[in-house]
C-alpha cells in the first residue's frame, strides 16, 4: 500500500513533479491558439497550416492517451512519465526552432506523443504514491494547480508572443522539463501494476490515430477537391472501421466496446462530443477573431478569454456539489445552453469591439455554462459504469473530447467557407466567424437535447470524482485509479486496487 504522506517533504516533491509535468501539457493546449496569427505571418502559412498546428498535436494525443497509461502500468509509471516529459520537451524545442510550417507540424505531432505519456502518468503517480488518507487532497491540489496553469496559459502565451516571440511559447517547456525530470528521479517512487498481463493494443492505438489523422486531413484539404482528398477520406473511414473490428476481437483491447453497452455512458459521451467539438472550434477561432478582426494584441486576446477559466476554478467544486443534490440532468441541459448563448453573444465582437460591452459578457456566460456542465459530466461518466472501470471510462471520455475538438478545428473552416487566406482579411474572417459561432451553438443545443432526453440520476453506489476543481477547456478531467486498457477479469470482480 502506498504510504507517502502529503505533508512530508517527499509528498511535496511528488506533488511538485506531477504539477510541473501536467502543466507542460496544460499550458501548451491553451497558449498555442493565441500565437496562431503571428505563426502564420512569420512562417507565411495558410489557414490549413494553422489548423494542422493545432490538430497534429491533438491527433497523436487523443489516439495514444489510453495506450500511454497502459505503458506506465507495465513498465513503471515514473519511468514512462519521465520519458513523456523528456519527449515533450525535445519536441517543444523542435517546435521552437522550426524553420517552416511543415517542420512545426511534424514537431507538434511528436509533442502529442509526449503528452499521451505524461498526461495520464501525472495522475497515476499521485494515485500510486500517496497514502489513501491523503490521496483525495493530493488529487485536489494537483487538479487545482493544473487549473491555475490553464488559466495562466493564454495570458502567458500572449505576453510571450508580443514580447520575445511566439517561439518561446514552445521553448518555455524546456526549462520546466529540466526542473521536473531530476525531481522525479530523486523523489518520486517507482510503481507499476503486477496484475497487468497480455500484450499492448498497439494496433488499436495506431488504427485509432490513423483514422483521426486521415479524416482530419480530408476535412482540412476538402476544398481542393482532389483525388488524394477522396482517397484519404475513404482510408480514414476504413481505418475507423478496422479499429472497431480490432477492438471487438482482441482479448485485451485498448477501448473495450462492451463498455458502451451502458446507455448512460454512450449518451454522456454523445453530449461530450457535442460540447467539446463546439469548445474546440470556439477557442481556435476566437483567439484569431480578437486579433485579426477586433485588433487586439496577442496579450489582449489571451487575457480576454481568462474569465472563462477563472470561473471554472472558483465555482466547479460547488457545481459538482449542486449536481450531487439535484442530479446531472438539469446541469447537463442548462450548461450547454448557456455555452451556446455565450457563443452567440460573440457575434457582437467585430472590428473595434469593446471588451466590457462586447467580449466580457460573452466570455462570462460561456464560463458559467462550463461551470454548470463540466463537473456533472465527469460524475455521470464515472457513475455510468462499474466502479472497477471508472478509470477506463474517464480515459475514453477524455479522448473523445479531444477527438471532437480536433475534428471541429478541421471541419469548421470547410463548413463556414473560410478560405485559405481568410485569417489575413478582417472582413472575410469576421463573416466566416459568425457562421462558425452559429454552428457551434447548434452543436451545444443538440448536446443539451441529448442530455435532457437520456441522462438520469445515478445510484448511490458509484464512484465520485476526485478532481473537484478543474480549469481546462480542452477536455474533462481525468479520473479514476488509472487511465488505460482493461485489467484482468479478476480485477473486474475484485474492484480497484488501493
Overall mean pLDDT stands at 87
Number of domains: 3
In CATH's first tier, which class of the largest domain applies?
Mainly Alpha
Q: What is the CA-based Rg, rounded?
A: 21 Å
Largest sheet: none
CATH superfamily of the largest domain: MFS general substrate transporter like domains
Number of helices: 17
Number of strands: 0
Examine the coordinates and then state which fold CATH places here, giving the name of the CATH topology of the largest domain: Growth Hormone, Chain: A
**Secondary-structure element order, N to C:** HHHHHHHHHHHHHHHHH
CATH-level-2 architecture of the largest domain: Up-down Bundle
> What level of helicity do the residues show?
over 70%
Strand portion: under 5%
Overall shape: it is globular
Low-confidence stretches: 482-498
Distance linking N and C termini: 7 Å
Biased composition (Basic and acidic residues): 460-469
Keywords: Antibiotic resistance, Cell membrane, Membrane, Transmembrane, Transmembrane helix, Transport
Region (Disordered): 460-498
Main location: membrane
Describe the structure.
By secondary structure, the protein is an all-alpha fold. It folds into three domains: 9-192, Up-down Bundle (Growth Hormone, Chain: A); 201-253; 257-484, Growth Hormone, Chain: A (Up-down Bundle), CATH 1.20.1250.20. Helix content is 75%, strand content 0%. The chain has helices at residues 9-43, 47-75, 77-96, 101-129, 132-162, 167-171, 173-187, 202-220, 227-249, 263-293, 298-304, 306-326, 329-345, 355-383, 390-415, 426-454, 489-494. The longest helix is centred in the first third of the chain and has 35 residues, at 9-43. It starts with 8 loop residues before the first helix and ends with a helix. Mean pLDDT is 87; it is low at 482-498.
